[in-house]
Amino acid sequence: MLRPSTVRLSTILLLAAAAVFAANVLAADNTRLPDGPGRKLVEEICSFCHGLARLKGQAFTRNQWENVIKGMVSEGAPVTDEEFSLILDYLEKNFGPVEEK
Hints:
Largest sheet: none
Order of helices and strands: HHHH
Structural class: mainly alpha
Helix content: 55-70%
Low-confidence stretches: 24-28
Mean pLDDT: 83
Radius of gyration: 18 Å
Strand content: under 5%
Distance between the termini: 72 Å
């Protein structure tokens, strides 16, 4: 039978290993986003929970991006009203539908 101190140590080691793994996965996402107002916010806030590679190939309308961001906020993304607007503007401009000419 394992002693309580052994169980605690095992749990701590397991959590530390998971944290290192997660940090390596996030660091491996070297996706380069287009320059512009809001890029830094997207890089910092959005990548807190998922990789930025998820943005590639997206072409959502402003309304769709607004709903995506609202969903992230409801899941706990720390976004102020001002940041919300900047992120929305950035995503619409850089990951919105391609305008046909």
